[in-house]
Give the backbone structure.
Amino acid sequence: MDMSRNYFELLGLEPGYDVDLALLSERYRALQKEWHPDRFAHRSDRERRMAVQYTAHLNEALATLKSPLRRAQYLLLLAGRDTHGESSGQLDPMFLMEQMELRERLAEVGDASDPDAELDALAEQAQASMRTLQHEFVSLYAQSDLDAAEAVVRKMQFMTKLISEIEAAEDRLADY
Amino acid sequence: MALLQIAEPGQSAAPHERKLAVGIDLGTTNSLAATVRSGEAQTLPDEQGRHLLPSVVHYGRESAPEVGGDALVRAAEDPYNTIISVKRLMGRGVEDVLSFGDELPYHFVPGDGGMPYIETAAGPRSPVQVSAEILRTLRQRAETSLDGELTGAVITVPAYFDDAQRQATKDAARLAGLKVLRLLNEPTAAAVAYGLDEGEEGVIAVYDLGGGTFDISVLRLNKGVFEVLATGGDSALGGDDLDYALARWMLEQSGIELTPDAQQARYLTTLARSVKEQLTDQTSVQVDLEVAGQSVSVTVSRDQFDAVVEPLVKKTLRACRRALRDAGVDTDEVRDVVMVGGSTRVPLVRTRVGELFGREPHIDIDPDRVVAIGAAIQADVLAGNKPDSDLLLLDVIPLSLGLETMGGLVEKVIHRNTAIPVGRAQEFTTYQDGQTAMAIHVVQGERELVSDCRSLARFVLRGIPPMAAGAAKIRVTFQVDADGLLSVAAQELSTGVESSIQVKPSYGLSDDEITSMLKDSFSHAEEDLVARALREQQVEAERLVSALEAAIAQDGELLENAERAELEHEMAYLRELARGADAAAIEAGVEALAKLSDSFAARRMDKGIQRALQGHRIDELDKESE
């Protein structure tokens, strides 16, 4: 397999942010049926090792294209922009204000009269912001305004982190 | 007559001859083996017709260890030499084991690498060796009742088992002389057992409440592919905990003032278990508590029992909700709920699970056997008996894998519920000027602090050229295979200095230890070992040659004429070698042929992409190649 083939080509999908998730799953399963190491259980060790590599690559492709943040980062990477590292660029103050406010609420969630409801409200707000960011990314990417698209991806990174912190708080509240 | 004539490896088995493969459920309380016969998966009984093998091993001073029912009857008279619930010790360190407290009467001695050995009359025994005795007994049972040598086995583990526990299970199988076709997660096996015909589609939840662990798995079934979307649970919450809770409550009700010692605690728990079991069919049970010289009669109603265990059941439901969230699935999307484990017989459990998912859970297959049956179905496919089967199980990693960073914090490299196999790399740097070595500490768990996670392995990358702090770039690569087992490699990028390990867990056995234990386990050690090594190589050679024959028959057009001639020449040569008795020469021949066929294998796999995407974007391409 040509590991350098991009994930969209690998899965036979049109490159772009709007991915048909049902089709993605279908292609993924079809390729797993060809490549999964269990299909090579009675073949040679080398073939099994190769199968492990292939399916690991395929799983990475699926994980990347399924995640709203990683899919955007991957499109930028294909356009020659690596957004995985730390960046020194400025984020707009309005966004930072909103982040600070959400994080404060999260930190104080234990003091709320109904922590569960407060967490639900926070999660909803974060998800809504994430959806807005995704829309912004789609139109900026379509206009090839990659600088602005990159800035949106950085906001998505913040928001994704916040969402996972909200989930961690839910786990703590549920006594894990 | 044996079905598979391994004694004459030069001849390939006729295609209609079935390979013998079993599924084994290696449980905390009971273990059992199952196989597919005449198209149906059945559990295998012993000569007395018993299917469940109690997971108990008794070690005597002179005699061979006893396993199962015979060992269980020794538990009371000889508790120190009768090992029960060994599964709870698998992959654990001495510290963990001591923290289990009074429930375990054994004397532990630390072995090399911190693995606890149990002092027995027959000498110190590791949990891996004890488990191997159970597996060996099941292997013998299977080989007797199937009349032939096993090709391999699928062995089940709790979905929530970490890397160390999985590795320990695989080591035990090796010690028992079993070829592991796959370590399979118990809930996935249960889903397969429920058949859920290959044509069916939808989301399935498997709720598995065993004796000592709780697992919840959410799977998507689509045309024979079982894709685990998320798994969760609690490796320290099981039916035993319901018993403890009820035992405490009954003691309270009796009015007897007592802080029970180990023996009294065992008595109360056993009594509680029997009350729990009776309450499955009855609405009220009366028992006599005879403890500390007093005898008090206590009545327990189903409602009272329900109130006592409700908090524990609630805890499992929270884990269910979290798994659904991780899977990105709403409760109303779940089409089937499958119940596994003896504790799912408790009516309250069934009611609450039914309420959460809004549907009646499946209970039609015996919850004690369902896992072995599912494992047998997959073993049959993996052994090559059903080449046309669509059955494919795609699993995830249950707990996040990460590395220790400065300040005892965990940097996660692979998050929980990531599909496996998976490979992922992360870059780190040095924090001191001139630093030439870096300690790599691999941990597993969800918590932020290293001290709250399970330590899997430590190794050191040396030979980093002295540079300013932060200038060196060290790439650490994690690779997890389809069994959920991890290997880790580290490389300094500017110089290429490299170091890697197959993660041998901190509490595992080394390869040398396993080899020497294997040797010990053969009565005529040397001879048997040599004969066995030869047979293994002969089987491997035959497997490779027949796989290649099939490949050439199917995809021969991918080979140039010269390539094909060379391959066929080497295949004939290897067959010739395999008729001889030189194991090393056969091994070298296998290696050479495998290498020669590498690029053909790669071309065949690439062709797989086209097949998989057929009828879609690249169908023109496909036509050209036809």
